[in-house]
Amino acid sequence: MEIHSAKYLISNPTVEGCPAPDKPEYAFIGRSNVGKSSLINMITNHAKLAKTSGTPGKTQLINHFLINHSWYIVDLPGYGYAKVSQKQRASWEKMIAGYLKTRKNLVTVFVLIDSRLKPQQLDIDFIAQLGDWGIPFNLVFTKADKSTQREAHANMRRFIEKMKEEWEFIPRSFLTSTVKFLGRKDILAYIEELNEAWGKEEEEPA
Q: What CATH number did the domain enclosing 99 receive?
């Protein structure tokens, strides 16, 4: 898949304000400071599409980007550490849960995992919540350029092995580096595959 156009569309504090659910949609989420905005910019080949920041908690709304006039990328607030009040964090959690559980055109959630780290309980707990809600997801291991390829692959394997303790099915996973554009083609090819499946479902008579 080639990205011909990518533009910021709208930001919302609730799912009710999101665009009409008439196009396939892919949400990106992860712990604060996992490199989410940088990954979105790499995938779309648009350096300034999603705002990057060294300060955790920069993303605070449901942000929609229209890609190729035919599908959406959604940038969600990170979970975990952020210098905000408990009230603000609770508000974010309610917003994220409301979006994930009710957005009809959400095809899958790309959960970002820092490949420099051994399995983190916060990530394990979040994907367990997605499982409880019945929401499809995939794993994207970020920052592979920040350590050796051997270390990145080892941590990726450790995380998957940890998942196997509770999960019978392990979703497709991607190892990425925004510096080396590692994983970009694989993620776009997967999204293209899912877009085609979504289009066929839409064409089927009720």
A: 3.40.50.300
